[in-house]
């Protein structure tokens, strides 16, 4: 058995070596502790995509920096916290130019409560500014929760103290206030390889030899867009278009099954993908049916009706790139639409806008068809294609006015039937054929059940796509889906992943605080040392104090 | 906050132990190995206590604040096992009065520190987030050092054989030591809210200091020659 002295000698000799090797090894090997953060919340990242070679959106997704508020003087290498209401395009440009690492935008829980039109316009401006070009800023959006608001308020308060009264007060406050470290882990965002988009089409064949009958095509793109892909609900744009298409399919399939009302023309329905990335679905549809010569579907079309954003308001506008000639089917349809609109109390206008062949993106879906010399128009409540109302975060399902959508659907259905049967059809649309608010509401609920940014609908087995396909196959014949990808060598579109993440906010103290603490601890240990050194003296004093008692008791 | 803060907490917790060991004359007595023996006895005692608690007291549901005072009282009575363990080990430690007390007390407290407080500090203080509770854990370690020294002194006094007049005093002091963990709950009943954070530290520190003064007084008046 070792004696005490030997043991102590051994330890004194060997412990330093152990420590020098073991301690750093232990520290390196130990995992980063997953400690409870002050707050953890889901955040949605800004879009990141390339369209025709031009990069858009936020290019990075990792964050591990301190938080600052929007009003802070310099935000370089920090994460900026801002509320959506306070953010303007100018602020955004300033944040980018000062070299911030990340921007966290707090969204009010109820986005449609942004009642004033002016505020909505601001939001859309900010979205446009963020998506216009690419930036290395990692932009995230999150819904406001009470704890997140607490963090935001305390960060704002601490930024304010940088303009404090005296230097001493500023020093004390900077040493003791809580800072917040915002961390988003995971991996850097990368390209989604082999992303497939899906067109869903169906057909109702007319009475007679199919190939010899003319066709009317009804098209609506079923994707949506917004600053953040996971917030792209697309209520009005283009949920309303899809709803109208599905209602038309339902009504017309009824009429086509009954031999008394079976008309002598074909009807093609297309739910096209990639509407917001330059109508890739329609482009592919046209290539399939025009370039491949064995498909007779588009050999003779009366017109192609594209539906885009018809969920609210009192006006419907028919956008054309070339005015339809007198007595052409398109013109007759427009007249039918005017008549039906007048009966329902809405105005119908025609808006003429020539296609600019210099631009590589088309503004409306009908332009794709017009470029292939097919008569086409887009029906929308909007004045123009770039008002910003298409593809915004504020376009939630609550944005759609169900009564207006029902009325608009009825108007379009009336006009279509008038055109097909060449009579006025006031009283066909009742009972089973009537357009009810309930059915419109349930279609809308189905379509807006998930965010529909293109990358979220990709893949061959998306549930929403499957549901739409089943609906179309119920109402039409020869319903099918067509998957397509971007060109390999020169992709027209490319999307990146990491659309949502979990951000953790840790309450941290500034580095100087640690030094302060060390100072305090050294002082404390010094005190104890002093106490121990003087303990014998203290003891003898205590003995002297008690000895009068002792001598008395003895 | 990371490693540096962890280092701070460890220094705050271990510093006094280290200083006490070095500057109270223990190295001259070759006390390191004996302290280790005491630590071993501590682990054995804790094991027996845990077995007792697990056998006789089923797992309580609900938050700890809700358990009634009587249940907690009975549970804490098991801590008298601590005293028995201390007595056992003290008989085996050779040496005169104060060094015996010091070795036992320090060894016991060091074992307590390593087994109960090192892990929370390792896991928690290294994280990114700052929380005052790690500093509080370290300060609590200091308080428990004084507390264990107290208990060791009182146990030694008890076994030394005292005049009948003083025995009840020592016994009551020992009882107060054992039931000290119940103090926050008693205060909660009296005042209405449970003390937390630095208030809790103050609540723990005050009786410890008072007991140390009283115990020192008893020690002085009855065994000054054994210094």
UniProtKB/TrEMBL annotation, chain A:
Primary location: endoplasmic reticulum
Stretches assigned to the Peptidase M28 domain: 215-414
Membrane topology: Single-pass membrane protein
Database matches in CDD domains: M28_nicalin_like (cd03882)
Transmembrane segments: 15-35, 511-532
UniProt name for this protein: BOS complex subunit NCLN
Keyword Plastid: no
Matches recorded under InterPro entries: Nicalin, Peptidase_M28
Gene3D superfamilies, per database record: Zn peptidases (3.40.630.10)
Cellular compartments annotated: Endoplasmic reticulum membrane
Superkingdom field: Eukaryota
Keyword RNA-binding attached: no
Organism: Petrolisthes cinctipes
Record's keyword terms, sorted: Endoplasmic reticulum, Glycoprotein, Membrane, Signal, Transmembrane, Transmembrane helix
One GO biological process term: regulation of signal transduction
UniProt GO cellular component terms: endoplasmic reticulum membrane
Protein family per UniProt: Belongs to the nicastrin family.
Automatic annotation (TrEMBL), chain B:
Keyword tags: Cell membrane, Endoplasmic reticulum, Membrane, Transmembrane, Transmembrane helix
Pfam families assigned: DUF2053 (PF09767)
GO CC terms of this entry: endoplasmic reticulum membrane; plasma membrane
Subcellular localization(s) per the UniProt record: Cell membrane; Endoplasmic reticulum membrane
Membrane topology recorded in Swiss-Prot or TrEMBL: Multi-pass membrane protein
Claim: Membrane is one of the keywords in the record: yes
InterPro entries, A to Z: TMEM147
Domain of life: Eukaryota
Transmembrane annotation, as ranges: 200-220
Sequence similarity: Belongs to the TMEM147 family.
Protein name: BOS complex subunit TMEM147
Species per Swiss-Prot/TrEMBL record: Petrolisthes cinctipes
């Amino acid at each position: 058995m070792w004696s005490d002295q030997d043991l102590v000698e051994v330890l004194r000799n060997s412990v330093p070596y152990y420590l020098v090797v073991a301690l750093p090894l232990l520290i390196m090997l130990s995992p980063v502790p997953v400690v409870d953060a002050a707050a953890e919340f889901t955040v949605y990242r800004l879009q990141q995509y390339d369209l025709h070679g031009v990069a858009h959106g936020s290019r990075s997704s990792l964050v591990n920096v301190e938080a600052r508020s929007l009003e802070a003087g310099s935000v370089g290498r920090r994460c900026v916290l801002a509320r959506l209401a306070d953010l303007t395009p100018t602020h955004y440009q300033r944040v980018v130019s000062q070299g911030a690492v990340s921007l966290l935008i707090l969204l009010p829980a109820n986005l449609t409560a942004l009642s004033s039109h002016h505020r909505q316009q601001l939001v859309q401006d900010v979205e446009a500014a963020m998506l216009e070009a690419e930036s290395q800023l990692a932009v995230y959006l999150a819904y406001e929760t009470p704890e997140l608001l607490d963090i935001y308020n305390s960060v704002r308060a601490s930024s304010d103290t940088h303009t404090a009264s005296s230097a001493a007060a500023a020093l004390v406050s900077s040493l003791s206030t809580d800072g917040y470290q915002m961390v988003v882990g995971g991996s850097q965002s990368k390209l989604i390889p082999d992303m497939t988009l899906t067109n869903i089409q169906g057909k109702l064949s007319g009475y007679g030899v199919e190939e010899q009958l003319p066709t009317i095509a009804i098209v609506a793109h079923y994707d949506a867009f917004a600053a953040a892909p996971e917030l792209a609900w697309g209520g009005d744009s283009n949920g309303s278009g899809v709803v109208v298409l599905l209602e038309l399919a339902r009504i017309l399939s009824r009429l086509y099954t009954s031999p008394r009302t079976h008309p002598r023309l074909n009807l093609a329905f297309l739910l096209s993908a990639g509407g917001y990335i330059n109508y890739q679905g329609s482009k592919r549809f046209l290539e399939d049916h025009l370039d491949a010569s064995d498909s007779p579907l588009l050999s003779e079309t009366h017109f192609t009706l594209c539906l885009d954003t018809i969920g609210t308001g009192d006006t419907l506008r028919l956008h054309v790139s070339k005015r339809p000639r007198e007595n052409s089917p398109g013109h007759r349809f427009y007249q039918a639409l005017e008549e039906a609109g007048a009966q329902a109390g809405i105005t119908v206008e025609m808006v003429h806008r020539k296609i600019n062949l210099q631009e590589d993106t088309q503004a409306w879906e009908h332009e794709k068809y017009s470029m292939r010399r097919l008569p086409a128009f887009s029906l929308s409540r909007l004045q123009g294609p770039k008002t910003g109302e298409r593809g915004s975060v504020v376009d939630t399902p609550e944005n759609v006015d169900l009564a207006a959508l029902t009325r608009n659907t009825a108007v379009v259905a009336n006009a279509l039937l008038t055109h097909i049967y060449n009579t006025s059809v006031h009283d066909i649309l009742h009972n089973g054929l009537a357009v009810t608010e309930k059915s419109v509401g349930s279609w809308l609920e189905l379509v807006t059940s998930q965010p529909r940014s293109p990358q979220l609908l990709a893949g061959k087995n998306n549930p929403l796509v499957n549901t739409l396909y089943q609906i179309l196959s119920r109402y039409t014949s020869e319903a099918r889906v067509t998957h397509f990808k971007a060109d390999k060598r020169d992709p027209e579109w490319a999307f990146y992943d990491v659309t949502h993440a979990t951000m953790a906010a840790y309450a941290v103290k500034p580095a100087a605080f640690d030094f302060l603490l060390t100072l305090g601890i050294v002082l404390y240990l010094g005190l104890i040392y002093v106490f121990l050194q003087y303990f014998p003296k203290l003891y003898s004093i205590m003995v002297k104090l008690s000895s009068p008692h002792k001598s008395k008791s003895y | 906050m990371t490693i540096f803060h962890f280092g701070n907490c460890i220094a705050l917790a271990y510093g006094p132990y280290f200083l006490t060991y070095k500057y109270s004359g223990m190295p001259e007595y070759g006390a390191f190995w004996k302290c280790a023996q005491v630590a071993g006895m501590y682990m054995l005692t804790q094991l027996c206590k845990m077995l007792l608690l697990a056998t006789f007291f089923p797992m309580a549901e609900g938050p700890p604040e809700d358990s009634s005072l009587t249940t907690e009282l009975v549970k804490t009575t098991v801590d008298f096992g601590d005293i028995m363990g201390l007595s056992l080990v003290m008989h085996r430690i050779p040496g005169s009065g104060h060094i015996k007390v010091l070795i036992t007390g320090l060894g016991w407290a060091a074992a307590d520190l390593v087994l109960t407080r090192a892990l929370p500090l390792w896991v928690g203080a290294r994280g990114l987030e700052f929380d005052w509770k790690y500093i509080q854990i370290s300060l609590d370690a200091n308080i428990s050092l004084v507390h264990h020294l107290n208990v060791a002194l009182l146990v030694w006094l008890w076994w030394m054989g005292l005049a009948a007049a003083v025995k009840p005093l020592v016994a009551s002091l020992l009882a107060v030591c054992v039931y000290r963990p119940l103090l926050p709950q008693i205060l909660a009943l009296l005042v209405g809210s449970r003390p937390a954070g630095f208030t809790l530290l103050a609540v723990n520190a005050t009786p410890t200091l008072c007991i140390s003064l009283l115990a020192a007084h008893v020690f002085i008046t009855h065994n000054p020659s054994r210094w």
